[in-house]
Amino acid sequence: MVSPTFANIDLEALKANYLSVSEFIQRRSSKKLNKVPVNIIAVIKANAYGHGSIAVARALEEAGSFMLACADIEEGVKLRESGVRTPILVFGALSVSDLNGVFTHNLTPTVSSPFAARALQAAAETRNFQLHCHLKIDTGMNRFGFRHDNLHQTIPEVLLSRNLIFDAVYTHFATADQLSNQIFERQQKHFIASIEVLSMLGFQSRFCHAANSASLLRDDQCWFDAVRPGLLLYGVVPPPLIPPPSLRLRPVMSLRSRIVAVKGVRPGEILGYGGQFTAVRPTRVAIVPAGYADGLDVRLAGVGFALVRGCRVPIIGSVCMDSITIDVTELDVSPGDEVVILGTQDDEHIDIVEMAKWIGTVPYEILCRTGIRIERVYKSDNLLSKVKL
Ligand SMILES: *Cc1c(COP(=O)(O)O)cnc(C)c1O
Q1: Closest atom, ligand 1, to C-alpha of 232
Q2: Contacts within 8 Å (CB) and 24+ apart, 217-222
Q3: Hey, which of 89, 91, 187 would you mutate to test ligand 1's pocket, going by the most ligand atoms within 8 Å of its Cβ?
């Protein structure tokens, strides 16, 4: 059975975006003398930002990805169980998770607190195992990581963890997408200083990384040995950053449905729950079977648009659990006509950055909230399959 509402996931676009980001950073970093190539840690947490982590991980493996990153051990285990073999970095704090998956499924955890270091060391020692991990420094975001300003106190104990091998040191920026915010530069300074302190304390690791999508675009000084884009790989540029012309990206996800009914509403009548909309003229309304249970934001009512027959039409009434209503008064439409909620139809396009602006959120939230009941239809050169993941 095929549901009329589905998310189209273009895996060729995903792979092309990966290669585009890769070429962009190789080109730029090769201009710097003696600079080793910058690797990409592809971020596929939260079900690959709603795109489906297994299909996305496989496509990124095909594209040659160096490392994948997810939020917690459970996400990593799911990827391994589906056959993903690329190294997987787990970002999240480990203190309350079951650590066993790290060992049974060959994941690379982040050590972000003395507590985590102790727990991992104990677990690795019991298993008589040398565990590869990354160390996280909190350079000012005040979330995960060892505080940059008291490494002298915290790191000596970590250094005694004989079963932990630190491959990398990393940090995360809080304000890379706020161009006038100086905290970004301050965090960079703290990170560089932390790397020096770590080295003085005898801490050794092979590489450093820091840049999410916005930092990657904003400043090549923070690329270090690897970058950690998420959003960019899905073809979305974090506003207000603007990509250089040489970095070409295509949106990976589009959201499509079909009109299931068309009806007339008389002047003075309401539409949907709560009477948020009252017709002021004879209005023709089309009902589209996609609602907030599919991830559509309730705030779209009255401010958002959809595409039908290549035209933009307003979303009116209320966003219901299973449906929205659109104003098609100006158009000749019938049940079965395609409706594009996100993506391109003929010459018109609705992009996610625009949609995020309508409702006052970030594109990340919209992608991640693509509902679990929405079918992901994967498009790639060698496969057109419908998979519910
Ligand atoms: C989510 C995340 C990223 C990727 O962020 P984007 O803005 O999507 O590029 C990178 N690093 C960490 C630690 C993250 O949590």
Answers
A1: 9
A2: 217/241, 217/242, 217/243, 217/244, 217/247, 218/176, 218/179, 218/184, 219/184, 219/188, 220/25, 220/28, 220/29, 221/188, 222/173, 222/188, 222/191
A3: 91
**Token match 């249970």: residue?**
293
Q: What is the pLDDT of residue 2?
A: 67
Superfamily of domain 253-350: Lyase, Ornithine Decarboxylase; Chain A, domain 1 (2.40.37.10)
Question: What is the pLDDT averaged over residues 141-149?
Answer: 95
* Cα–ligand 1 centroid distance for 230 (angstroms): 6
* Start and end residues for every CATH 2.40.37.10 domain found in the chain: 253-350
Under CATH, which architecture does the 11-233 domain have?
Answer: Alpha-Beta Barrel (3.20)
Cα–Cα distance measured from residue 46 to residue 310, given in angstroms and rounded to the nearest whole number: 32
Pocket test for ligand 1, best of 91, 209, 212 (most atoms within 8 A of CB): 212
**CATH 3.20.20.10 in the chain, residue ranges:** 11-233
Q: How confident is the model at residue 285 (pLDDT cuts 50, 70, 90)?
A: very high
Which secondary structure element, helix H or strand E, spans residue 159, and what is its range? helix 151-159
229 CB within 6 A, ligand 1:
yes
State the average pLDDT over residues 48-53: 97
Q: Ligand 1: distance of its center to the CA of 342 in Å?
A: 23
Distance CA(205)–CA(134), nearest Å, equals 9
Task: Determine which helix (DSSP H) or strand (DSSP E) holds 100, and give its type and residue range.
Answer: helix 100-104
Percent of the chain beyond pLDDT 90? 89
This model's pTM is above 0.90: yes
CA–CA dist 41, 80 (Å, integer): 16
212 lines ligand 1 (CB under 6 A): yes
Residue 389 has what pLDDT? 43
> Could you report the per-residue pLDDT of 324-334, keeping only the tens digit for each?
999 999 999 99
Kindly report, residue by residue over 190-243, the tens digit of the pLDDT.
999 999 999 999 999 999 999 999 999 999 999 999 999 999 999 999 999 999
